[in-house]
Amino acid sequence: xxxxxxxxxxxxxxxAVLAWVPKAGSTVQIxxxxxxxxxxxxxxxxxxxxxxxxxxxxxxxxxxxxxxxGLAVTGGGPLTTSVLALVDRRNTRAQSTxxxxxxxxxxxxxxxLERGAIYASLVAGWPEGVAIVLAIKGLARYPELRSxxxxxxxxxxxxxxxxxxxxxxxxxxxxxxxxxxxxx
Length: 184
Prior knowledge:
Largest sheet: none
Oligomer: single chain
Structural class: mainly alpha
Number of strands: 0
């Protein structure tokens, strides 16, 4: 079971990285994101079905810790982009990503840092870190959310909606990755 859990986690991490390939079509990226999510669900089900991972040495736990952390950071981007593409029903995934870059600059990097910080704080047993990360992100983005310098086609409500949907998707992904790891 240990090999299967490590394999599914590693496969999810590879698919998360492949989902970021810029030349891949939106359908391919959505499929990669879906299979990545299925890998994570499989890991969670395997951990919940048995007695967790029994007999692991410290080395194997560290490997799984790093793989799940990598999946939390890299996998949340394609998932969040897919969710935002669903919100922008008339746009392709690439158009939705471009729109996000125009509306809230630096979102992909901020989201990666956010997921990494949330994952690390939960795995370290410090859930208060989630509140701190979200407070910092909200305070830092507040001026941009209310800025009149947005493109004419974008309303302040649309900017706020993208911010909330993207943040919730990103946070839930990081929490899910940490939860599956800690469910053992």
